[in-house]
Amino acid sequence: MKKSKMRSEASSSSNNSNRKGETVVGDCGTCRSSCGYCKSSGRTSITHGLWAYSVTVDDYQDLLDRGWRRSGSFLYKPDMERTCCPSYTIRLRASDFAPSKEQRRVSRRMQRFLDGTVDVEKKSVELIKDPSTSNCNKVSSSVENNSLSHNNEENNKEEEILQFLSGQIDNAVQLCIVRGQFLSGIQLPKASVKKVSQAKRKLLVEGMENLLYTSNIAFQLAATLNRAQLAEKDVQQIRVFGQSIEDTGPSPKIIAAKLASSLIQLAETSGLSIRACNGHLNFYSAMKQASLDEDVHIGTVSKESAKTCESKGGCLKNSSEHPQAKRHKLQIRLKRSSFDPQEFELYRRYQIKVHNDKPDQVTETSYRRFLVDSPLVFVPPSGDDTVPPCGFGSFHQQYLIDDRLVAVGVIDILPRCLSSKYLFWDPDYAFLSLGKYSALQEISWVKENQTHCPTLQYYYLGYYIHSCRKMRYKAAYHPSELLCPLRYQWVPYDIARPLLDRKPYVVLSDFASLQNESSPCISENVMGCQHDDIGQGDSNDVRMDYDYDDEMLDPESESDDDEPDTETSCQTVGVEDGDISNIVIRGQGTRVRYKDIQRVFGPIQRRSLESQLRKYMKVVGAELSERMVYALGSYL
């Protein structure tokens, strides 16, 4: 029953005769390449590839629902049983989305930023700068000496600085998560910064006298990360060159060093020197010792002093009152996929700063091939509740703050879903968690556009790789579903997770039906039926450093077309059969069924071609193989 329902859903959009265009693909066969997820040294990533000359949105929707994705015009589907990192398509029904506490916090943070309340932090950091660079501080210092620590507003300013520095550390933690340096998908502690008193500074060793603020967040992070890793697996074992070592997570010293490295920009703008010392994150003044005989105060400045500062190019205005909030304007624009120099510059900066790519690796050609080129045939709005106002096709969703481009989401809008392909953002705005915020906006877009196109119900997040910890964030958009790699049925993530904890490749639909029909306990015997040789002794558990969702795959990679067909299962119920004679063939400008031209081939050529056609039908399905056009290439 489930299978027939799935087929009905899959074919519902493809029968729309009002949409023009056709799908034409060339078969690249089985491709091997290095893996961008586990970073294995060999060609362990195994996929089947198609080069798409054109693809209708209906056909691409159905391909997604069979585990395919695209990178530019290259379509690929992992060989789930043989590839090093099995990749499961993950989706969410937008109307069922239940945001987590952290996701709600991201929305509130953005709203506070737009309302202007975050600007107070920017005002505060101005007051931390070296006083020798501005006459403002000289005036401020004299006022501070008069008010001393009895001034309540002075204490408030001090607290603002501590909160600001704490927020900057939290942003650095998020940046380390994005870079894959810290484990994602868990609740990490918030930073707390404390001021080092004058009395304590006098007791410090030589060279530490100018220490102003310190934080022990690295110790808290280390404890949390270690607990998470031990809870995930009693003791996480990582295979390294055939040896098993215990992974207990990063030490406080390593964490503090990573955070200090991520706070370089703050050091440049605030006049502070930021260093890691024995696991502590310390903030030092750039001032000479002679200026440090007194505590650093953030006191009240009179209106006259404020005017003096302003007239001399100072940094403080109206500081006798709470700084006036500066509101920001956010614009979200949806545009058809095309090359935009401004977008490319943002992408280049993102790849270099966040993913540590070398500048010569981030080229306009590779960017176009990866994120601009698209084979999808655009479908304009129809006005009849079958197409959204923007149409169907490939789009770039731009996020602008005060007319500055800060993020771009690369998406495909299809008959049943918005498929998220990639996002790149301005590292200066990491504190806004733009990756999470854009996902929330895309989910909201799906819900809003259901009134224009009722079939548009799902948000696809790409591939989910359970052995890749940086992928875990995708399952945080609850309740999500994973696609069964054999029967192409959707299985709730909550059912799939314990199975994937034990094996990287699982026929998920087997256990979905077992759980529906009997108890939620899955026996060892049933698990043992499924490919005991898969994932044993390899390096799938090694955490990747970068998360290139839809990693660029080269269609010219080493081909395995002569290998025997190994796609099997201990339970073959539900595997489709089809007749290759009905495959639509393109050759020399014609469109014919294979059965109408098979006699033109000699025995050897015919045997080779039919072997290729059978593999093609197996990976795209009988229905799509009879609907899409197969470009023969060198055969005619």
Automatic annotation (TrEMBL):
EC number(s) on file: 2.3.2.8
Top-tier EC class: transferase
Region (Disordered): 1-25, 551-573
Compositionally biased residues, Acidic residues: 551-566
Annotated signal sequence range: none
Domain N-end rule aminoacyl transferase C-terminal: start-end pairs: 343-484
Keywords, comma-separated and alphabetical: Acyltransferase, Transferase, Ubl conjugation pathway
Low complexity composition bias: residue spans: 9-18
A molecular function (GO) term: arginyl-tRNA--protein transferase activity
Chain ranges of the N-end aminoacyl transferase N-terminal domain: 33-105
Highest taxon in the source lineage: Eukaryota
Reactions catalysed: an N-terminal L-alpha-aminoacyl-[protein] + L-arginyl-tRNA(Arg) = an N-terminal L-arginyl-L-aminoacyl-[protein] + tRNA(Arg) + H(+)
Record keyword Transferase present: yes
Protein family membership: Belongs to the R-transferase family.
Described purpose of this protein according to its UniProt entry: Involved in the post-translational conjugation of arginine to the N-terminal aspartate or glutamate of a protein. This arginylation is required for degradation of the protein via the ubiquitin pathway.
PANTHER family in the cross-refs: ARGININE-TRNA-PROTEIN TRANSFERASE 1, ARGINYL-TRNA--PROTEIN TRANSFERASE 1
Protein name (database record): Arginyl-tRNA--protein transferase
Taxonomy of the source species: Eukaryota, Viridiplantae, Streptophyta, Embryophyta, Tracheophyta
